[in-house]
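Entry 14. Ran structure prediction on the chain below.
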Amino acid sequence: MQTRALVYTASFRIKERRRQMFKVTLCRFFISFLYFSWVLQVEAGGDCPHLKLNPPSVVVEYGSSVSVDCSTDVTHDGMGWEAKEGGVPMTTDKLITWRVSNLRRWDIQPQCYINYNRKQCETFLPITIYKTPDSVSINTLNHTGPRIEGSWYELKCDIVNVALSNLTVKWFKGEKEVHTKTFTDTIKTPVNVTSTLNITAVRDDDGAQYRCEAELKLGADGPQPPPKVTSEPLSITVHYRPKHEVTIELISTNDGDVILNCIVPANPPATYSWYSEHWTETRNSAVLSSSKLTPGNYTCTATNPLGKSSKVFTITAYIHGENWLIHTQVDPHKLILT
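Output, structure tokens:
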């Protein structure tokens, strides 16, 4: 009897375990069935052939109005718009409009949906929201006063409160574009950004004007020409030493005077001094004019705080009443840098 009871108990436990396993399997099957049914019923955005958006995508300025139609040509069980603002409740109409009069949500995410043939599908509206900067300004980074020729410095362009998407910053020297930077950040909300430009000062930069420009390239759907904000120009001052070039000049007389011109570009402006073996003292002027100059060497020295440059004028011939022939050369031994 004991043996039969043990066999019966073991058999009962096996049957009970099988019954429990069957229930678990059935439950899992039911959950999987519900999941795949939901997947079949909800077709992701962009895969919804019965919906049409007009326009199919929009570019809209922050704070302005926007409206987009969603339409269908089939009889359905309901359609509507879902969005963080301006949503349209489900209706049986075949054309519904998403509309916002003052768009101030960066995460608006509008989508139109339709219930058709016991399925729901959605189509998302591609939307680009842009905002031009509150201000664009240019200044020198970590530097004040004039630049010295040959020195390196950095210009900074501050762009305040701009949406980074599609932002390009352009740098100009006068009317010539010298540098471009495109921001590829995907941040949608406005931020403050900075662009920099590295420059080595040259004498040709003295008096030049630099400016920067923030431009939003929004594609064919955006405003044309692209919106942009430009800084006020920044004038650059470069200090550089005098530097004569080697020349040969035919100097014309002026009422019998010979004119020796020593003027040379320099910033700050140069002061001048003349020396000749025919004189007992130096003379101070940029231009030497005299009818009593005799053949020989006349040396002019231009000086400013950055250096000196000397130029030798050699009078080689004189024909009375006609031109003096002056040979000028830079004396390499008198080119002095300080």
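The two ends are 123 Å apart (CA to CA). Will compare against last week's run tomorrow.
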